[in-house]
């Protein structure tokens, strides 16, 4: 892998995003807006004294889920446009390697994901007073990892789509099952055997579990460390797989 080639790809993608305010708005603003909607859903909730708010639990998990969904959409459509416009074909006639290209894209969107996580976490903590305690750094890290996971899966799925509509169609196949089985609605331990087995091999489950560890413990735990390693390993594995399936252009 050529670091200079990867960095050049990263800079090019960031320059393209700078000239696309709608995409920048989608990345930076939409997760915070969606978080606000979740807050308002539970705004009038009546709880016994001392009972934690439902929003503290659900909102914390959404800090991982929303970036995952947004970055999957942005990345899959962006890469598809690169291929259908012929840009990817021209780039691959240069000495750049597929891995340099894919990891350059991942780095660029990871930088945007970090900004996205900072904005969403700041809104959750300062505006909606979500109970993060002193674990804001861990929350940001997990949000970034889940966003990068969305980037990696978006890059992989874009190789199998020929139109933007097809890229969006991967949502019900790749994204929604992970949201349903990650533990947001039903704890994984309470699922039936088959669903629990599926949930245990889906990366978003470990990201949500990491956020639950942050909420339950003031200090980092071994389970949190394991969750972070698993999600990071998924990211690297998916990016490597995406580099193998990357096509020069869409027929």
Automatic annotation (TrEMBL):
Spans through the membrane: 24-42, 62-80, 101-126, 138-161, 168-187, 228-246
Domain ABC transmembrane type-2: 22-249
GO MF, one annotated term: ABC-type transporter activity
Record protein name field: Transport permease protein
Top-level taxon of origin: Bacteria
Family: Belongs to the ABC-2 integral membrane protein family.
Cell compartment(s), UniProt: Cell membrane
Keywords assigned: Antibiotic resistance, Cell membrane, Membrane, Transmembrane, Transmembrane helix, Transport
Membrane topology listed for this record: Multi-pass membrane protein
Origin species: Arthrobacter alpinus
